[in-house]
Amino acid sequence: MADPFCRGILVPVDFSPCSGEAFRVALTLAKTFQAELLLLHVIDTSALAAFNRLGLLAVPSDAQAQKRRLRHHARLNTRQLLDSEMAKGVKVTRALADGVPFVEIAKMVRVEKINLVVLGSYGGRSESIDKIFFGSTAERVVRTAGCPVLTVPLPSKPKRS
Questions:
Q1: Is residue 39 part of a domain?
Q2: Greater pLDDT, 137 or 4
């Protein structure tokens, strides 16, 4: 008998509304395929370094404390997602990484032998200079993941009559 199409689903989240929608879709797919779900949050160290160089977030001596705060907030936000009613009945493993998001996502796909990545089509930094010059994380994941990638937009708001 052939392996099922989808044994492992990776859902990277940045806690934006779009990644919340991707999490919802990933849970539905995990239930449908009886797959395990891996929830990943990446602390974007390249963005942190750039902001710190510009003096926008923290003085260099506070960089480690800043990273600890970001990890703490990521754990709290992840717990909130996992405690939601829709997550019940799905085996979810969580992971936290530091680095460039698309690189860490591609690594996780290889290491964990992921069959499908489900991610928001844009995240918390969608209007950034980084996206204008280098492309979005979602686009880079599509190019580098080595497995199918489902990008999930925010649902459109119903038009008022």
A1: yes
A2: 137
